[in-house]
Design brief:
With 279 residues, the chain is α+β, with helices and mostly antiparallel strands. The protein has 5 helices and 11 strands, in the order E-E-E-E-E-H-H-H-H-E-E-H-E-E-E-E. It folds into 3 domains: 6-101, no CATH class; 124-177, no CATH class; 185-277, Nucleic acid-binding proteins (OB fold (Dihydrolipoamide Acetyltransferase, E2P), Beta Barrel). The model has no long low-confidence stretch (mean pLDDT 87).
């Protein structure tokens, strides 16, 4: 059996613990693991408690239990490792072997889970491909399905997880099949161009002159379409006589000059001026 090499590097002189023990800070390295420790003039080796706050011997979150004293170190902040350097090296080798065994066991368990997940994907190719697509396209934390897709990368799904994933996929497929086409809105004409369009009046609102300090006008939004068949809205404010005689839902033909394109809370709108009703 190969003896593990241990490297001990002495650093600064410090005072540790509530006994104010003078010691030397030491860094101990064995294989790929590192420990911090202290050694005093009597060749006694100590380490920080690690259980209390800042190795102070005090746990403020348990202040109501014996004043918050740490039971692991007895309130001194440090714990004794060994009484000599030889005993210390024996202890460090045991710790290293234990940690390596734990890591090896974890690596083997991870390899076993990944192999089981791969076999599960081969047995359920449709479910695996759907979950892989969701994992690729959706943002982290965006849905329960993405969580299940990530779970499949770490191991096979349980019977309950599989049934839940299938039900969610079926529900999503139904929603996608019955979702109405997206309402795409765009503009009509270029700024300064005079256009002639036909559409339905979707908004007609009277703007009383006494409220706005000017002539009484009418706000009209005309729902129409551009040359590509995409929905477009024309917004106009006018005091023309015809505007007072139309109603919401009327189909009219309007001739007007484009003054601008806006994108407000109601989506893209084409603003026009001097509108005339052609029919």
């Amino acid at each position: 059996m190969t003896t593990r090499e241990i490297e001990i590097i002495r650093l600064a002189e410090v005072t540790v613990g509530k006994q104010y023990m003078d010691a030397t800070m030491v860094r101990i390295t064995c294989d790929k693991f590192t420990w911090a420790a202290y050694v005093n003039s009597n060749d006694e080796w100590w380490e920080g408690c690690g259980n209390c706050e800042g190795d102070s011997g005090f746990k403020p979150w348990y202040i109501g239990i014996h004043g918050g004293v740490c039971f692991q170190c007895g309130g001194v902040g440090v714990r004794r490792l060994a009484g000599s350097e030889r005993a210390l090296k024996t202890l460090i080798r045991k710790r290293t072997s234990s940690r390596l065994s734990t890591l090896n066991a974890a690596e083997k368990a991870e390899e076993k889970r990944l192999a089981a997940a791969e076999a599960y994907c081969l047995e359920h190719p449709n479910l695996a491909s759907d979950l892989a697509r969701i994992r690729t396209l959706e943002a982290p934390g965006s849905s329960t399905l993405r969580g299940l897709a990530l779970a499949l990368t770490r191991g096979p799904l349980s019977v309950r997880q599989e049934a839940y994933a299938i039900s969610l996929l079926v529900e999503r497929a139904w929603d996608e099949a019955h979702t109405e086409p997206q309402d795409v809105r765009t503009y009509v004409g270029e700024v300064g161009e005079r256009i002639n369009v036909r559409g339905e009046i979707s908004v007609r609102t009277l703007l009383p002159g006494e409220r706005y300090g000017r002539q009484t006008r009418v706000l009209i939004v005309l729902r129409t379409a551009n040359v590509r068949g995409e929905r477009a809205d024309l917004k106009m404010v006018t005091a023309a006589a015809w505007a007072f005689n139309v109603r919401k839902g009327d189909i009219v033909t309007i001739s007007a000059r484009v003054s601008g394109h806006t994108d407000g809370i109601y989506g893209p709108q084409t603003e026009v001026t001097h509108p005339r009703k052609e029919d």
